[in-house]
Amino acid sequence: MRRSTVALPALAVCSALLVSACGTRSGAGAADGTAGGGTTVVIGFDGPLTGDLSALAIGAKNAAQLAVDQANRSRAVPGVTFALKSLDDQGQPGTGQQNATALTGDKQVLGVVGPLNSGVAKSMQMIFEQAKLAVVSPATTSPGLTQGDNWAKGAKERRFTTYFRTATTDAVQGPFAAQHLHDTLKLTKVFVVDDKKAYGAGLAATFTAEFEKRGGQVVETDQINSGEKDFSSVINKIRTSGAQFVYYGGEYPDAGPLTGQLKKAGVKIPLVGGDGISDANFVELAGGGATGDYCTTVGAPLEDGAAGRAFAAAYEAAEFKDPYGAYGGYAHDSATTLIEAVKAVVAANGGKLPADARAKVTAAVQKVSFDGVTGKVSFDAFGDTTNRQLTVNQVKDGAWTPVTSGTFSPK
Fold first, then answer.
1. Per-residue pLDDT tens for 115-126?
2. What pLDDT does 303 receive?
3. Which of 321, 225, 246, 325 shows the shortest CA–CA distance to 278?
4. pLDDT confidence band for 410 (50 / 70 / 90)
5. Which family is it part of (predicted)?
6. Sequence-distant (≥ 6) Cβ neighbours of residue 362 within 8 angstroms
7. Which of 72, 118, 167, 300 could form a disulfide with 198 if both were Cys (CB 3.0 to 4.6 A apart)?
């Protein structure tokens, strides 16, 4: 976590990111009023703010708050004050569904940042669609959320026109990992494990398909139940499998103990995962067993770009107690996307929000294009980000360290 207040370079980032006070003032005006009269527009945030994944969600929420505060400070939309309304889904689809109902029921809410979990997102999408409320996720990566259940067969279908995301999908992330492990590291035998959840199972499937396409061998597969404490059963299978590494589809609360127990059992091979394990807690939970492990993350490292460095400095200056984490930059860009969309709608309507503001904001999100914290922010016909940059990271000296960034090149 870093701190300072550097102005961001691009106009959209400078104007829509600059913030001053406020994410809790949702009652300061009517969302259907005249912008010049001091309208409050609420941006919702949904994520697992408590529970095992809270480290990821709190940083993302703070980053969204930073975008709101910056927009207010710079008066990005004349006459409009933005506020953030944050709800905790606990990583549970049922709770996420309740939150979606609460957010759509608040007429001041014109967009939502989140959720972080693909399974939670699936439970919320229809509610947001029926309310014409735009949602921009900084983290969900399951391809089916935007491209339909048959996307892998080439039959892509966009069922939810209100759903967007600033993070690229597992249709790219899994294959990118396979490309690096097989072609660059020359590892040809893998044991694949997943946690049976939408994110983990989906990521493992896309990795497996590409790894085998490149000539790699999946020596065995297994699944765990999230929340397990003893992984001796799967570790015994890995030990005798001849695998050169383990690919894990899931998140850090299980991946950390799994790799720690694996190394403690004398199986000195790396565990590799996706962005769901890219957190300092993975290293801590591994108890010294994470060194040499790999993960992929969406986008290039924030410190590689001027806008990313400025975001990190501004986040530090805001003195949030928690680091922005793996999804902070994407949450900031998600909130900025909604701010830019509101700006476009107000400008097109004579400085006022129209009666059908939600539908208009959704349409405006589809056309958004700006240079954000994580790179170029824009969306394709399915609502997916057009930025398909990814990074391979490795645990070195007790922390995740970027190794290389690039894009996936189909075989």
1. 999 999 999 999
2. 87
3. 325
4. confident
5. Belongs to the leucine-binding protein family.
6. 132, 133, 134, 161, 162, 341
7. 118
**Overall average pLDDT of the 154-174 stretch:** 96
The shares of helix, strand and coil residues in the chain, as percent rounded to the nearest 5, are 40, 20, 40
Q: Of all helices (H) and strands (E), which one includes residue 57?
A: helix 54-74
| Superfamily grouping for domain 11-168+301-377 | Response regulator (3.40.50.2300)
CATH number attached to the domain at 171-298+390-406: 3.40.50.2300
Residue 37 has pLDDT above 50, yes or no: no
CA atoms within a 13 Å half-sphere pointing along the CA-CB vector of 72: 22
Q: For position 281, what pLDDT does the model report? A: 95
| CA-based nearest residue to 139, from 111, 170, 162 | 170
- Backbone φ, ψ for residue 252 (5° rounding): -65, -30
Q: Specify the pLDDT at position 358.
A: 98
- Quick one: which of 270, 154, 248 has its CA closest to 204? 248
The full set of domain ranges for the chain reads: 11-168+301-377, 171-298+390-406
Strands 375-377 and 271-273: unpaired
pLDDT band per the 50, 70, 90 thresholds, residue 38: confident
